[in-house]
Amino acid sequence: MSSKLTIGTIYVKNVEWGGKSLLENGNLSLNKEELLGAIAADRDFFGTVELHIVRPGDSTRLLAIEDVMQPRCKADAPETSYPGLWGKMAPAGEGTTLALKGVVVSDIYYEKLNIKWYLDMKGECAKYSQFSKQFHVVLAAKPKEGVEPLSYARALKHASLTINVMIAKLGLGQPFDTEETFSLGPVGPGPDGKPLPRVAYAVVHAAQNDTWNFLVYGQSALGFLPTVLQPTEILDGAMIWRYWEPNYYLQNENCIMELMRRHGKDLEFVGCVISNNVMRIDDKEAMAMMAARLCRDTLKADCVLVNKSGMGHAQLDASLHFIQMEKMGLPAVVNLAAVSNDKPCDNLVVFNPKVDAVINSSRNFILHHERVETLIGDGADVPSLRGIDPWGPFEHTTAAAYQGHMNQLGDFFMTADPELTWKD
Predict the structure, then answer these.
(1) Within this chain, do residues 145 and 221 fall inside the same structural domain, yes or no?
(2) Is the pLDDT of residue 341 over 80?
(3) In Å, how far from its chain's centre is CA 330?
(4) Pair 150, 192 in one domain
(5) Which domain-ending residue is among 299, 333, 359?
(6) What are the residue ranges of helices labelled H in 98-188?
(7) Is residue 378 part of a domain?
(8) Residue 84 pLDDT exceeds 60
(9) pLDDT of 3-32, one tens digit each?
């Protein structure tokens, strides 16, 4: 049985620098020196540190914006938020978590990566990302000379989470604008008197090196074997991506939330199996086989939704997971984001006629980017923009470049969330 998690949300309507950090009537005021002082220990790994507030509609382009997260903390024990990476160890996925919506904490990544994302806050391109609709508190910290990339990545993530929790705590004691409780309790039969179908969710996540990785309670996924996680743990910060996709998408994992909302209505959601995107074909087949066994024999599933977060390798992993599920008698469907033959940017790199139930949850676009007045992250190498003046104007595909227009797990802004509206 799943733990019960309540996520209480407070809507933020404005963010600005001020003499005192406080949240009042949806207006967030932040003391910059207080935030910088809180990350003093992590600053030993940084050469320079800057904090910015960026607003929707600003003529600003963010370069190498690798992570975006909602400010969140545990309402009764803020020191246990993001266990294993920040604060004290405690089980995630239970109790009450406070979340701020309308503001995100983002960080600029200056070390080398083959994929880095950018984002426009104004103009035509802003229509293609939900992150352009939110206020950003941006941490731009360059690594100190001689600091190893992994040490820099750890320090940057810890500093970002420190700021994240500090901002979230400003909402403690205030009434929530909305709240939702997630739990997987026992279910009865469906309207026809028959048992509801037992649905498992199996996901392959990218973990290829120390800085392109995911962590569960702070434990590296490198060498990870498929494991069962409570859905609420994933929503509540037990699992963190390290510089592949923004963790906003794990905090609001749309497939998990949809399955949990339908639990007891037209299906019985039995849980999640998480696998690592590995490189060797034998390892891929082993991961797929173990994940299928966990779905069938541990979770007792009748059918499986297979998903992935990663690129071509992860497509192959997800396809092998699908095939293994079907071999073991579990009907499956697989989501492969942005893989249709709808031009531009056909990203389908794996084709297997045995994989015959595929969801294409998104597509890519070619966008015209205007010239901007402010560039944050200048000097952070963005491979997709090499040879292009990052100030603009230029044209570029959104594929593996434009932050927030789609998520590999299936959250596609153009259809799933066409506009963000906040309560007054």
Answers:
(1) no
(2) no
(3) 28
(4) no
(5) 359
(6) 149-169
(7) no
(8) yes
(9) 799 999 999 999 999 999 999 999 999 999
Report d(CA 292, CA 417) in Å as an integer. 32
Whether pTM exceeds 0.85: yes
Whole-number Å distance between alpha carbons of 375 and 52:
11
3-state secondary structure of 163: helix
Which segments within 18-110 are labelled E, that is strand?
22-24, 27-30, 46-54, 60-63, 65-69, 72-74, 95-101, 103-108
Q: H/E/C letters for each residue in 294-352?
A: HHHHHCCCCEEEEEEECCHHHHHHHHHHHHHHHHCCCCEEEECCCCCCCCCCCCCCCCC
User: Each residue of 38-59: pLDDT tens digit?
Assistant: 999 999 999 999 999 999 999 9
175 shares its domain with 254: no
154: CB partners within 8 A, 6+ apart: none
Q: Which domain holds residue 241?
A: 185-359
Amino acid 350: pLDDT: 72
Q: How far is CA 286 from CA 225, 282, 292, in A?
A: 9, 6, 10
Whether the predicted pLDDT of 353 surpasses 90 = no
Same domain, 146 and 166: yes
User: Do residues 239 and 343 both lie within one domain?
Assistant: yes
Structural domain count of the chain: 2
